[in-house]
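Reposting from the mailing list since nobody answered there.

I have sequence plus structure tokens for a pair of proteins and want to know whether others read the tokens the same way I do. The first protein:
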Amino acid sequence: MISKDYKQNKKQVLALYDKYVNARETAGKKIDDSIREQAERIRNEIFNLMILGEAKSGKSTFINAYLGEEVVPMDVRQCTSAIIKIHRGNKFELVAKSAAGGKTVITGYEEIRDFLKNHAAISDKYRNIPITTINNELLIKYKGKKIPGQIMSSFLEEEAKDNIFNMNIDEYNKLIREYVAENAANWGKIITEIDIIYPLPEEMQGITIIDSPGVGAGGNVGRIAEDYISHANAIIFVKSLSGQALESSSFMNFLRNNCTNRKKESLFLVLTGKSNLQGSEFASLREQAIEMYKNDIKPEKIICVDSKIQLFLNKCREFGTEEKIDEFFDKLDEAGDDFDPASKRWLKSKGDIAKFEESMEELSNFNSVQVAIEKFARIANYLQLIEFLENLEKECIRYRGIYSETLKVAEENVDDPVALEDRIREKENEIREVYTKITQGIMEIYKKYTDNINGEGVIMNEAQKKQEEYEEQLENFRQLPESQITDTTFCSMKKMTLDAIDDTKDFRREMANRVIEEFNQKLIQYTDDPSKIPAEAYTPNFTESDFDSIDDDARKKTSGYDKVEHGLTFKSVERVPYHHLKKHVKLVANSIHKRLNDDIIPKMTDNVVNYVTKCRETYYEKLTEHKVELEAEYQKLLEDRDSNEKRRANVEELKDKVATVEMQLKGIIGLKEELKNYVGE
């Protein structure tokens, strides 16, 4: 289970926020909207942990061992194309959604297991064909309609790579056709998503485990799973240490084709079945895995575990006493189900439960998974907490400055009307200065970034450079000789295109940081985080399916048949297929070029301009709010001038406010420094 440390820290951070809110409301001060919104995001945070793996990799066993409960029945075979989501609730309940939109609710362990066996599991006959891909790409996509012969032929040719059990290709294709024929009419009953609610421990509140169908040899996960992967906070890919090659194509292809550079940061490789190997063999395989994937995954994210050992340990912890554990192992031995690595450790412990647990934990190594998830996948969450505390700290420092300055003046000017008059004139000057920033300063910065009449707008110039970089990459593909063009070429073009989409998002963030920095330097210190400025979400209008459509269209335009005559007296004509790869690449490159130049780059530019416009509006609003605060302080000085007694009372009130802010700052700074330990700062 994920450590509850983050939950405790989150609770402390929100408690400090609640104190801040109470103090501001007591003082009659408005809570900044961006602070309030950030607090709500932290309060409602959901952690999505995606579990992927090849067929027969032991995903279900790993999930149950990780959760500490047998939530997913392990004798139920892999679900066809269903995503399984597991989260905490008050009772054990299953909610299944079908392709046609139907919903079924099941309660009770046996009832849930029966439902999975009868409605969602793969039958033995079709265990060795890519059911997930067939369901998504043929049955659900065509909704029971007849699938064109050309589509079926292309599908069979493409899915030959997923014949991971090396069946006779004719038998393999025959099974696919039979499965399609048997299930086409019932496409709407295919289970696509399963929600499992289970009374897990409290520390699992807000955490969702997402179990995906098996990953194909080509690294494909299915259209439904792709969306979940893109929103996952962390991804665990489960592989078996025994019975499967470390260099199997499914994981490598998942890395190369379906896992963008940014997503690799949240990816973990878990190798299961640790106890099945001898010490030297295990160490050799781990080193081999580290060397094999070193360019994509850090060594500390490659973790070897034994799920079955952890399951036995969890079961023994339920028994709790030496007598019941002895009875448990005796029954297993009588039934012929003894698990030697676990029973040996129990015998060796001689009834010492603590010693047994320590030995089993060392062998299962599940603590390493927990530590890795906490260290890497939670870093983003901790950074969010730290950033929020820094914003609270800035707010408190700002209010401390306001109160301290006002207190100083109030103390100095009790019974001193001359000094108070000087302060009134100073406040008038401050109001005039803020007014100048509102009417002139904001517009100067805005024009610098958005004024393109003379070709000097920063945004347009930087976007043009990006556009030229993409064109240069596309030209390299266009210039490839046909002899160097392979299927990898099109995968590379696809990955280059999706990484270019990520670059456009980075461009928005980079420009946002520059704009915020300049606004802060020349106007006011509002925020260091560009995400605090509200702006519409920017999602580039280009997806993997768009690329596949471009590739298919280009293939059709560059493939066909030529008529070739044979013989002299008795002539015959033969249709010979052709496929011009170089033209194919050029057509794909030209299509990407058009999308980048006509759609993605202009939208990226428009979005950044819109963002800068939002910045202008937001800073106008903040400066105006500051001006209103100054005017209120000015009015307060005028009122205090009329009553010396009122000034004395105000001194005491301000002292209390300063003391309150100081106490809040101490708590915020202390917790912030403590949280930095979690991210290695």
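The second protein, same order (residues first, tokens after):
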Amino acid sequence: MRLTGITSLASVLVLAGAAPAVAQPHPPDPAAVVRTDLGLVRGQAQPDHRLFQGVPYAAPPTGDLRWRPPQPARPWQGTYDATLPRSQCAQLAPPYGGETTYGEDCLYLNVTTPARADRRHRLPVMVWVHGGSNTTGSGSAYNAAKLAADGDVVVVTVNYRLGPLGWLAHPGLETGADRRYQAGNYGLLDQQAALRWVRRNAGAFGGDPGNVTLFGESAGAADSCANLVSPSAAGLFHKVIPQSFSCATPVRTETSAEGDAATLAKAVGCDKESPAATVACLRAVPAKTLLETFDAKGMSAGPVAGGDRVLPLQPVQAIEKGRFNRVPVMHGNTLDEMRLFVSLIYPRPITAAQYESIVRATYGADADAVLARYPAADYPDPRIALATIQTDAGGALSSCLHQDAFRLLKRAGVPVYAYQFADRTAPPLVDVPGFDEGAEHATELTFLFPGLIGDLNPEQARLSDTMVGYWTSFAHNGRPEARHAPHWPLLRSPDDVLSLAPGANGIHRTDTTKTSNCAFWNGL
């Protein structure tokens, strides 16, 4: 198994620790100095863009601030050095590469602007929420220079608390001023704090705080969907782009999340006589122990739907009831989402008999119908057949569940633009020998953030230009458009999904309900 783009991700995830702001010994480049509401920051000025890294948007969530909503960062004297990224949030390295870190001082963001942007301009702002199962990743891993320079937008990439430190839902945490918050949504609240920082400071970087697009991929898309329906995020953004995670997907329930928290507390020796004593014990447990225990127990991280002002309803219920932030939505997935995960679970070939056994164990009485619709003989590799089933139906990344979200949002009366990234020659996240990764999960990212996962050939580079045009024009005016590119229709019917691939006729309308057999799956 060969790691492709993730090895380059690993190199940028070896981030510098948080450093105090100090006055600079030499006169800074005036073009790279901006006054924020907390003080001056100095970034780097390049010919086509400016970059400000590691800017604090909230206080370090350490000590007694562990598992509390983000608190205000302190102002500084002098000029803050924003020329280097700061620490990623505490995490264990994922199986496809990266770095393990245990530092909790991590609530930083990065701002990329076109070279000409300043207070006289009011450019759209795009706020990126990275993926990684809400357990790994960093905003600094994403080079937004192309989006900013070619799309004439300001891009903000955000760190937020991960794993047990961002998503632990112990009821003992709901005390005092925090009683109004459902425990377990600290990562979500971090993202909302970053959006509030954008509202206060976008103008200083040439951005328009009244034109903010929230976008994210995978877990970042799940969080974007949660923010879409969160009352506490109202007014913080004006458009949203969830990539590869359907907004019709259920999030964790209060009961299940609190059950996980109780299990974790017991596993680390903090199952005490009272909730307050349990929380006090948990706050003293080293981050390393929490991360390793959380991982060993196979726990999940992500938003929690509970009876509070952050996420009172499941996203699908909130959309159905019309109780969500009504903004234009651009939403989609990749053609072969689940090939990534199948290749990680089955890095070696499986036989047709093994494939049949897996399908029967999964689908029970429906297995004969599934095997008849997806016979192993129709695919070059039984693993491809298995991944096709999983991509078509049933999971958060599936094409049919994305169509459910498109339909719900359209019915709710907001503009919806739908896509499916379909370049089966795109650089894969993980290169498994003898396996065709196709347009697997995350392959669209390098077309928006060049260099993230491998290199692009000339045709793919042209597709990248087009996608950047679509994404940033949506940020400008709520309509995805690009020069010399096909029209992207407003979703009115299931065949208004725009397929994105390189080459002649690579961009065209498609009906993913048909290509993914959604009527078949809905009939089971």
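Reply #1 (J.P.):
I read it the same way you do. Residues 1-26 have pLDDT under 50 and may be disordered.
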